[in-house]
Amino acid sequence: MRNVTMLILGVSLSLCGAASADAQWGNLKGKFVFDGKAPEPKTLDTTKEPMCGAHKLVDEKLVVGPDGGIKDVAIFVRTKKADLKVNPALANPPAEVVIDNKNCRFEPHLVPILVGQTLVVKNSDAFSHNSNLTELGGAGANPLIAPANQATYKYTRPQMIPQPVACNIHPWMKAQVLPRDNPYFAVSKPDGTFEIKDLPVGKLEFQVWQEGAGNVDTKAWPKGRFTMDIKAGDSNDLGTVKLDAKLFNK
To answer: pLDDT tens digit string along 187-200?
Structure first.
């Protein structure tokens, strides 16, 4: 009987410890949608490389889904690293993050990365690409990458806006890399939804950015910034965030 009691006590203490740990962290979710009639995506001129014609590429500066969801909106914590508690579960991120020259475009189009991680730039196409990586305050790089080869680069400092990536051989090819000093970032999916997990409970400042709009400057979010009191668990929901068409006329 004593052993059973001790077992129950041990399980109870374990559950209490897990509950206490969970109470320190919360998840933030939401959905970005285009408020109005979305413009038709601009078809890109790829005649410089005949093998690219089959892919029917369009400008990805603003991608709006059938239900109005906006793809590739970046949302990230801009609270200073010194004032930010990070969940220990996020302490060992993957060593590498991959961006690929594939089907005459960069995939993904917007890539978040932690300073310290290695950006691996692949080439899955049957012809060469260069990948011109720029870094504000850093060296940057512009490797020529043959088919089935790759190059690497490490960003040296966090940035508040994504850094451009381009192929000078195929000038329609563009992408963005967002180097950060904390793991609290997300990029909206094709349906406009996003989620940032394991945020520390308490007030945090966030930044919202989209390639066509820059910092998403609204009445509620001046310069694309807002502060939110994060609660434990899944109760943190921005809901559907409608972004006015005028924001993208830049």
So the answer is: 999 999 999 999 99
- 4 with 173: CB under 8 angstroms? no
Same domain, residue pair 188 and 66: yes
Q: Is residue 156 one of the residues assigned to a domain?
A: yes
Q: What is the pLDDT of residues 95-135, one digit of tens each?
A: 999 999 999 999 999 999 999 999 999 999 999 999 999 99
Residue 136 is predicted with a pLDDT of 97
* 188 and 176 in a common domain: no
Domain that holds residue 172: 94-181
> In angstroms, what CA-CA distances link 167 with 62, 104, 120?
19, 10, 15
Q: How far apart are CA 169 and CA 175, in angstroms?
A: 14
What distance in Å separates the CA atoms of residue 152 and residue 138, rounded to the nearest whole number? 15
Give pTM, 2 decimals: 0.91
Res 88: pLDDT: 96
Location of structure tokens 């960003």: 155
Give residues with Cβ within 8 angstroms of 194, minimum separation 6. Answer: 29, 30, 31, 32, 73, 75, 186, 187, 188
Same domain, residue pair 242 and 191:
yes
Task: Find all residues with CB under 8 Å of 23, minimum gap 6, and list them.
Answer: 201, 232
Q: Residue 115 maps to which CATH number?
A: 2.60.40.420
Domain boundary among 157, 181, 205: 181
- Residue matched to tokens 């090819």: 173
- Residue 249 is predicted with a pLDDT of 80
Contacts of 20 (CB under 8 A, 6+ apart): none
- Percent helix, strand, coil in the chain, to 5, is 15, 45, 40
